């Protein structure tokens, strides 16, 4: 079924979806500093995102083992920017994410790099396989970032108590 749709239509649709989802994530992140952070708010996003791995049940989305390693290492490297700019602050007895203007530009840059990379690679890699690669990239980036957030949060929470 996926192979019946011309690849340029899939590329256009997936680019539009990426822009819309990226915009949604940016809006959520920009408002995250208004509510106190807790363990659940840190851990739930990668767990919820992990359900997307069900795409690999279907053959068109499967990625070669070496590509999995490469993409996940790239995602871990990309998470370093997010880890570096994620800071917490204490207000009263609660911990909040610090607002950072650079964070918006980092997310915007990561989205732009993703879209450009997809447009460059779409002719040489099957659309389904490319979708699987970008899922793994995003998941590894978010998982590494959230693990680092969790560690920072626990350290800060220990200093408050």
Characterise the protein shown here.
The chain has 161 residues and is mainly alpha-helical. Helices cover 70% and strands 5% of the residues. It has helices at residues 7-31, 39-49, 65-85, 101-121, 127-160; strands at residues 88-91, 94-97. A two-stranded antiparallel sheet has the order 1-2. A hairpin with a 2-residue loop joins strand 1 (88-91) and strand 2. Helix 3 packs antiparallel against helix 4. The longest helix has 34 residues, at 127-160. The chain starts with 6 loop residues before the first helix and ends with a helix.
Which key features would you list for this structure?
161 residues; mainly alpha; two-stranded antiparallel ribbon; 70% helix
Short description:
The chain is mainly α. The chain has helices spanning 7-31, 39-49, 65-85, 101-121, 127-160; strands spanning 88-91, 94-97. The termini are far apart.
């Amino acid at each position: 079924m996926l192979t019946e749709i011309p690849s340029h239509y899939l590329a256009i649709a997936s680019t539009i979806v990426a822009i819309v989802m990226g915009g949604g994530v940016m809006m959520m992140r920009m408002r995250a500093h208004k509510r106190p952070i807790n363990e659940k708010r840190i851990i739930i996003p990668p767990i919820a995102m992990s359900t997307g791995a069900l795409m690999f049940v279907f053959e068109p989305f499967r990625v070669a083992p070496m590509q999995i390693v490469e993409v996940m290492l790239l995602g871990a490297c990309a998470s370093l920017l997010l880890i570096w700019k994620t800071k917490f602050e204490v207000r009263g007895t609660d911990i909040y994410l610090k607002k950072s203007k650079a964070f918006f530009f980092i997310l915007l840059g990561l989205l732009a790099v993703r879209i450009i990379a997809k447009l460059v690679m779409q002719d040489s890699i099957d659309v389904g396989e490319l979708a699987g690669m970008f899922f793994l990239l995003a998941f590894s980036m978010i998982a590494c970032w959230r693990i680092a957030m969790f560690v920072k949060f626990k350290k800060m929470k220990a200093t408050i108590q």
